[in-house]
Amino acid sequence: MNNWTKRWDDRYSSEEFAYGEEPNNYLKEQIEKLQVGSILFPAEGEGRNAIFTAKLGWNVSAFDISEEGRNKALKLAEANDVSIDYQVGELETLDFEEEQFDAIALIYAHFPAEIKSDIHKQLGQLLHKNGIIIFEAFSKKHLEYLAINDKVGGPKDIESLFSIEEIKNDFPNYEIIELEEKEIELNEGLFHNGTGSVIRFIGRKK
Q: Which residues of 83-95 are buried (b: 16+ CB within 10 A; e: fewer)?
């Protein structure tokens, strides 16, 4: 097991949910604007966003490198009387198909810096024409907030954080519905608490 996988297995192995059981606010706000369909949640951890979306009637797929994350997500799904397709592994080893999804939700999906842009491009191939990306993750400016309060969470190296330019480069063939850097208040479980800086992006694939 590599260090990256071990880190997330350790974080998700406790009884309590690392980021809570409630969905992310931005996801909740955006998903309710869309027609129900099929959606993929990359780096979905303990499943709070996937389970919320499944309860709205979506056909939900998710993946993560953490077996512990999957175990908790499936327990949460059972408690909420929904089912989701949750695979464990790195994206290229999984059996998703091109243009399979109506939407992809990247909610704090901070992949290692050296592969994050490649993963965004690979994910784009799984979305069909007119499909929607919903994205919220920490911006490069977030390091300033982390320095004041480490309880807000997020990566501590600037390369793993996002800029508006990176998002434009990673998702070039999209109509930008919304793309902004924003200061927000987070109150998500044990590891996202306080004021932080995020990039928010809603894009429609051309």
A: ebebebeebeeee
Residue 137 to residue 108: CA distance in whole angstroms: 4
Q: Is the sign of the CA dihedral 60, 65, 67, 71 positive or negative?
A: negative
User: Which are the contacts of 89, defined by CB distance < 8 A and separation ≥ 6?
Assistant: 63, 65
DSSP 139: B
Going by pLDDT thresholds of 50, 70 and 90, the confidence category of residue 3 is confident
Tokens of 3: 């260090």
pTM of the model: 0.96
User: Distance between CA atoms of 171 and 152, rounded to whole angstroms?
Assistant: 27
The string of pLDDT tens digits covering residues 33-48 is 999 999 999 999 999 9
> Token pair 């949910």 is at which residue?
17
Which secondary-structure segment (H or E) carries 46?
none
pLDDT tens digits, 169-190: 999 999 999 999 999 999 999 9
